[in-house]
Amino acid sequence: MQSGRLDDVEVLKTASIEAHDRISFSGTVKDSNNNPVPLTSVRVRIQTGGSGLLESQTLLADENGYFNGSVSLKGDKCGVVREEPDVHNRVHSGTPTNPSEWWDIAWGVGFYEVSLPNNTIVDDNYFVHICQEKLAKMCYYERDYNTGGSKWTCL
Fold first, then answer.
1. Is the pTM of this model over 0.70?
2. What is the pLDDT of residues 107-139, one digit of tens each?
């Protein structure tokens, strides 16, 4: 396991972002001669900053050594909430069909470890996932037929 804490911001600069409640894994198990190893189990272990160690999951490689699956992040208590509550969607002159949006987003930090049956770790890394999101405000320019211009409307 890598050293560092789950909330270590320096480590998170290269972390992957996984949305919501699942993180996906895929790959091919190969032996030392680079040949696929069929029907091998691959264990995925997830630890989050909000809930600690979540239930491990075992994925089974097919006859070509390929494995593919996802692990649930449900149950993570979301250890980090953004200090800045509104996140803008970068649409600066919204229209009724493409409005500017501001979101309240709570996110969590986690660590995954992928290992083989002999406990050899083949991959591990930190990740960030969205635990909860809520649309806080939505605004757009609307044509004002009284003045011939437009007005900024927020919902």
1. no
2. 778 888 989 888 888 888 888 777 777 788 888
Indicate the CATH number for domain 9-83+105-131: 2.60.40.1930
Q: What is the pLDDT of residue 39?
A: 93
Place of tokens 């930090």: 109
In Å, the largest CA–CA distance within the chain is 76
Antiparallel, parallel or unpaired: β 52-53 and 41-48: antiparallel
The sign of the CA dihedral 70, 131, 48, 111 is positive
Structure tokens at 144: 């004002």
By C-alpha distance, which of 31, 37, 45 is closest to 61?
A: 37
| Nearest of 29, 58, 26 to residue 45 by alpha carbon | 58
**How do the domains of the chain map onto residue ranges?**
9-83+105-131
- What does the angle CA 71 – CA 32 – CA 2 come to, to the nearest 5 degrees? 45
What 37-41 contacts at long range (C-beta under 8 Å, 24+ apart), as own/partner pairs, is: 37/61, 37/65, 38/62, 38/63, 38/64, 38/65, 39/63, 40/65, 40/67, 40/116, 40/117, 41/116, 41/117
